[in-house]
C-alpha cells in the first residue's frame, strides 16, 4: 500500500459495477500491462469494517492458481481500498449472451474443466466461494477461465459441527436448495450445485432455474427435478424453512427433455450428478476435475 500506487496506474474507463464496488480498466505503467482496479469500501453503512472486502482481499492473496483471478496490488483511496487485479477482457456471462458465436461442445468442456479445477483449488484450501455464476467467471484473451469476486467467500471447517453460515448468499438462480430452505449448516456442496447450474446453462444457452423470488426458485427446482424424497435426503425436514410452505407433488422432468437441442450425453450426465437435492450426493470438484474429458464419474 505504498504512496507510489496511484501514479503507477493510468485510469482508462469504468467497466463494471456490483454490490461490493466499481471496477475500472487501467494501465499498469510499471509493467506496461492492462489491469482492472476494483474500488471497494473499507467500512459498511453501519461504520464497521466491511467483512466482504476483507474476505476478498485475503482470499485473493492466499490463492495462487491459474484458474483464480490474481491480485497485483492494493492501495488506499479516498473511499476505501483499490484492489488491482489481472485484467480479463471477457466473462462467461457475456459469452453466453452472444447469439453470433454460441459455445461449441469443445468450449463447454474446456470452460467447465477450468471452472472445476479452480473450485478444486479453493475447496482444497478450505474455501467456499458461495457465488459461482457466469458473471463471476472471467475469461482471458487466451481463453483461460478464472474464478473471481470473492466477496462472499468463507473458510469452511467440515469437522466443526457447530459452525453456522449465512443463508443470504449466492445469486438466486444458482442457489442450492438447502440454502433456499434456510440451512445455516451447509458446505462446499453449494458451490457444486452452482457449478452444475453453470454447466447446464452453457449447454442450454439459458439458465436452468430462473426464479424471481426464493419461493418461485424452489418451485421451479421441484417442478424440474421432482419432489425431493426423504429417503434420499433425510435431513430435509430439519431445515429451518421446510415446514413454512408446501409445494405440489412433482415427478420431475427427464434430463434429456431439459436439453432438447443437446446430444452431449457426457455433459448432461455431469449436470445430473451435480444438480442433486442431497448435497452429500453431489460430485466433489476433485472428482470432476481429475477426469480431463469430463467423463461420467458417478459414485457407487
From TrEMBL:
Q: Which domain of life is it from?
A: Eukaryota
Q: Which UniProt keywords apply?
A: ATP-binding, Cell cycle, Cell division, Cell projection, Cilium, Cytoplasm, Developmental protein, Kinase, Nucleotide-binding, Nucleus, Serine/threonine-protein kinase, Transferase
Q: Return one Gene Ontology term, BP aspect.
A: cell division
Q: Which GO terms describe its molecular function?
A: ATP binding; cyclin-dependent protein serine/threonine kinase activity
Question: What Enzyme Commission number(s) apply to this enzyme?
Answer: 2.7.11.22
**Catalytic reactions of this protein:** L-threonyl-[protein] + ATP = O-phospho-L-threonyl-[protein] + ADP + H(+); L-seryl-[protein] + ATP = O-phospho-L-seryl-[protein] + ADP + H(+)
Binding of ATP: at which residues? Answer: 43
Which Pfam families does UniProt cross-reference here?
Pkinase
Task: Tell me which SUPFAM superfamilies the record gives.
Answer: Protein kinase-like (PK-like)
Q: Where in the cell is it found?
A: Cell projection, Cilium; Cytoplasm; Nucleus
Describe the location of the Protein kinase domain by residue ranges: 9-294
Q: Which GO terms describe its cellular component?
A: cilium; cytoplasm; nucleus
Q: Which family does it belong to?
A: Belongs to the protein kinase superfamily. CMGC Ser/Thr protein kinase family. CDC2/CDKX subfamily.
- Protein name per the record: Cyclin-dependent kinase 20
Native organism: Drosophila willistoni (Fruit fly)
Q: Identify the gene encoding this protein.
A: Dwil\GK14226
Amino acid at each position: 500500500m505504498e504512496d507510489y500506487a496511484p501514479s503507477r496506474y493510468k485510469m482508462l474507463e469504468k467497466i463494471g459495477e456490483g454490490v461490493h464496488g466499481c471496477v475500472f480498466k487501467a494501465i499498469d505503467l510499471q509493467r506496461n500491462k492492462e489491469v482492472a482496479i476494483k474500488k471497494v469500501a473499507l467500512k459498511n453503512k453501519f461504520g464497521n469494517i466491511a467483512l466482504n472486502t476483507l474476505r476478498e482481499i485475503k482470499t485473493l492473496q492466499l490463492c495462487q492458481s491459474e484458474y483464480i483471478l490474481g491480485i497485483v496490488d492494493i492501495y488506499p483511496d479516498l473511499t476505501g481500498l483499490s484492489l488491482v487485479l489481472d485484467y480479463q477482457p471477457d466473462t462467461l456471462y457475456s459469452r453466453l449472451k452472444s447469439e453470433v458465436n454460441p459455445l461449441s461442445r469443445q468450449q463447454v468442456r474446456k470452460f467447465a474443466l477450468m471452472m472445476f479445477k479452480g473450485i478444486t483449488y479453493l475447496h482444497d484450501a478450505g474455501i467456499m466461494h458461495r457465488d459461482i455464476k457466469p458473471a463471476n467467471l472471467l475469461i482471458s484473451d487466451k481463453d483461460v477461465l478464472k474464478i473471481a469476486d470473492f466477496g462472499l467467500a468463507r473458510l469452511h471447517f467440515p469437522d466443526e459441527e457447530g459452525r453456522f453460515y449465512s443463508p443470504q448468499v449466492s445469486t438466486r438462480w444458482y442457489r442450492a436448495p438447502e440454502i433456499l430452505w434456510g440451512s445455516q449448516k451447509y458446505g462446499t456442496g453449494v458451490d457444486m450445485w452452482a457449478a452444475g447450474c453453470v454447466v447446464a446453462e452453457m449447454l442450454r444457452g439459458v439458465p436452468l432455474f430462473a426464479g424471481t423470488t426464493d419461493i418461485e426458485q424452489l418451485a421451479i427446482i421441484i417442478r424440474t427435478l421432482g419432489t425431493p424424497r426423504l429417503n434420499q435426503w433425510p435431513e430435509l425436514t430439519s431445515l429451518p424453512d421446510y415446514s413454512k410452505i408446501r409445494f405440489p407433488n412433482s415427478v420431475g422432468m427427464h434430463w434429456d427433455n431439459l436439453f432438447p437441442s443437446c446430444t452431449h450425453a457426457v455433459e448432461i450426465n455431469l449436470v445430473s450428478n451435480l444438480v442433486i437435492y442431497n448435497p452429500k450426493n453431489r460430485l466433489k470438484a476433485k472428482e470432476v476435475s481429475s477426469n480431463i474429458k469430463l467423463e461420467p464419474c458417478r459414485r457407487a
